[in-house]
Structures are given as C-alpha cells and as structure tokens.
Amino acid sequence: MQPQVQAFFDPATWTVSYVVYDRPGGHAAVIDSVLDFDPKSGRTRTVSADRLIAFVREQGLTVQWILETHAHADHLSAAPYIRRELGGRIAIGAAITKVQDVFKRVFHLEPQFRTDGAQFDHLWQDEETFTIGELQARALSVPGHTPACMAYQVGDAVFVGDTLFMPDVGTARCDFPGGDAHALYRSVRKLLSLPPHTRLYMCHDYPPPGRAPAWESTVAEQRAHNIHIHDGVSEEAFVEMRTKRDATLEMPTLILPSVQVNIRAGELPPPEANGVSYLKIPVNAL
Ligand SMILES: [Fe+2]
C-alpha cells in the first residue's frame, strides 16, 4: 500500500512538514512539525502547527507517530503541541543522546537534564520497522548533517530529513557539532540505492531565484541531476566541496533557540521561579 502525503511549507524557515497517512479516516504520522518563533520578541505561535492539525482533523486521521528527522537547528519543533492536540508518540533517532551530550555542555544546562533521550517517547534504531495504520514503515539512520539524523521510509516514499535537498540545491551542511561530510556521503548513497522511482520528500527547500519552492523528487532524478552528489561524484570530491562550502555559510538565525528546545523533544526549558522559561545565548563559546 502506498502512502498519501500532504506537505506544509513554512516560508519563515524554509521547512517542509508532512502528514503521511494510509487513507482518509485512517492513520497518520506527522513529520518535522514547526512551532513558529519570533526571535525579536521571544514569542512562540502555533499558526503553522494549527494548519497541519486542521488537515489531520478534516481527514479524520488518528495520529500514531510524531517523527523528527533530527534535532533541527533552524526551527523549533511543535511536537509536544501536536501530541497534546492529536495524540501520537514523539520519536527521533537513538543517537540523539550524543547531540544531547554535546549541547548540555554548550548550554551548561541544569544537572537534571537527561542525555539518555528520555524526553522522547521512542528512540529509533537503524532499520527499525513500524506501521502507520496499514502502511509499512522503516527508520533509516542517515548521519552526516548531525550524528542522529534519520530518514523515514513509508511504502514507496522516503522522508529524507537534512541529507538531500532538491537536485538544483544539493545537500545539507555538515559543519554543526557532530557533523561529518564523509558520513553524509555514505548516507546519501544509501538512500540513492533505493529503487529509481522511490519518491523522496525533502525537509527544506531554498529555491534559487525564479523557482517556486518544491520538496518532492525521486531517486532517479537525484542520481542524474543533484548538483553536489549525482552519480559519478566521488566521496573525496564531495567532502572537499562540502567542507569548502560550509566554511562560507552563516549560522541559521534560530540555531540557539532551536537546539535548546529540540533536544528536549520540543519542550521549553523548565520555567524559573517567576513562571517564565528562558533560553540561553552562550557568548563567545561557539
Ligand atoms: Fe537540520
């Protein structure tokens, strides 16, 4: 059985969230939801998440899974809000513990902050299988952008997270803590060894001038046309390109707030005595 896929593009962070489901009235997974965050005022909003929730309700879907492809550095996850509104279990790759370890130190988090992934309802191992209603699904470890990146294969569709972008944009950066361009090359080749007609759904699009945002491609298209990693590009050539290019990229605007929230499975830090949650900015530490 092939899944139905509904995409939601967030122009503020160039993120694509998905609802993947078996049939109207059936079961669904939500992938990479977005909690809107205004860094100027420190305000969160749920406009993006509410759009997705409205679709799930219109279609009469039961949410089983709220999947994260990784601890995003460019947007806050709306996973806890989605779980409160719709149910479902929040899941991410098991290597999130490494990411939690690194950022617990970077942000000097409270001693009680756990680095065993306990904030999530489930941690995926590589190749672990699961179901979404009548759909067969599989979690695939695809490290490189971060050590904990996962892709989710559902029928003939794969949600690739931050590995590949659209063919004219290329691949994800590998210069965050724990990133590894060699690992990303191998992860992408693993995805591109799937059958040529496999549908690939991107986590982001950064369209070049003149092209509208897009997020769906195929293994065959990526192998033929991906500007960074089409067939014939060697691991050495890819790593050299990726490393040079990463050195020119600025940090994402929301990296500091995003990471602090996303390693808590999307929860804000514990409120202080006045009832307010605060996010930290490490000065001259990164
Ligand atoms: Fe990312």
Describe this structure as you would to a colleague:
Helices cover 24% and strands 23% of the residues. The chain is an alpha/beta fold. A 6-stranded mixed β-sheet has the order 1-2-3-6-7-8, with helices on one face. A 6-stranded mixed β-sheet has the order 9-10-11-12-13-14. Strands 4-5 form a two-stranded antiparallel ribbon. Strand 2 (15-21) and strand 3 (27-31) form a beta hairpin. Helix 4 (181-191) packs across helix 6 (235-246). It is globular, with a radius of gyration of 18 Å. The structure holds fe (ii) ion. Fe (ii) ion is lined by residues 70, 72-73, 145, 162.
Helix-strand layout with pairing:
Blueprint lengths: L3 E7 L4 E7 L5 E5 L4 E3 L4 E3 L1 H12 L3 E6 L11 H8 L2 E5 L2 H11 L15 E3 L4 E4 L2 E7 L8 E5 L2 E5 L19 H11 L7 E4 L13 E3 H7 L9 H12 L8 H8 L24
Parallel strand pairs: 3-6, 6-7, 7-8, 12-13
Antiparallel strand pairs: 1-2, 2-3, 4-5, 9-10, 10-11, 11-12, 13-14
Helix pairs in contact: 4-6
Bound molecules: fe (ii) ion.
Fe (ii) ion binds next to loops.
Helical percent range? 10-25%
Small molecules held by this entry: fe (ii) ion
How far apart lie the N and C ends? 46 Å
Low-confidence stretches: none
- The fraction of residues in strands falls at 15-25%
Please list the strands of the largest sheet in the order they lie side by side: 1-2-3-6-7-8
Class per helix and strand makeup: alpha/beta
List the secondary-structure elements in sequence, H or E. Answer: EEEEEHEHEHEEEEEHEEHHH
Largest sheet features: 6 strands, mixed
Tell how many strands the DSSP assignment holds: 14
**What Rg, in angstroms, do the CA atoms define?**
18 Å
